[in-house]
Design brief:
Layout lengths: L18 E8 L3 E10 L4 H14 L5 E12 L1 H14 L5 E6 L2 H10 L6 E4 L7 E3 L10
Parallel strand pairs: 2-3, 3-4, 4-5
Antiparallel strand pairs: 1-2, 5-6
Helix pairs in contact: 1-2
């Protein structure tokens, strides 16, 4: 059985992920995750797995930063995955922030109206490293 062009062999029923999820920093209270590739439905499992491992391994975790600088594409399934990760953080009071470097991530979040749901560290060329605090009122069911 051959690997798909540009992809990796995974399993018979599991598509090759188009994203690489790497925990680049982790201590008792802070963690950073680097996302590389396409943030689509195929990103859900590896990103949720990385977040679950962090939650189980660091009970005092207070802040997680998702660096999307190497994300080349974001669709609605990828946005849903980001919301899911944020919901994983909420019960523990963990602040989730997204580092945004380009329009591949910024534009879909803005168009969907979810830009204000997340704390955004905006590092696009025209933004002068601005931090946009989340304005979404978090509740148990949001």
């Amino acid at each position: 059985m051959e690997a798909p062009p540009g992809g990796k062999m995974v399993g018979m029923d599991e598509p090759a992920p188009d994203i690489e999820v790497t925990v680049t920093e982790s201590d008792a209270e802070h963690a950073a995750i680097q996302l590389t590739g396409e943030l689509t439905e195929n990103a859900r499992r590896p990103l949720v797995r990385a977040m679950t491992d962090l939650l189980l391994g660091a009970p005092q975790l207070r802040r997680v930063q998702l660096d999307t600088s190497a994300v080349s594409f974001l669709n609605s399934a990828g946005i849903s995955t980001l919301v899911q990760v944020q919901k994983m953080c909420q019960p523990r009071g963990i602040e989730l922030s997204l580092v945004v470097h380009g329009t591949a991530v910024a534009r879909p979040l803005q168009l969907s109206g979810l830009w204000t749901r997340f704390t955004i560290i905006d590092r696009r060329d025209d933004s002068h490293a601005t931090v946009h605090e989340a304005t979404h009122k978090r509740s148990e069911h949001s």
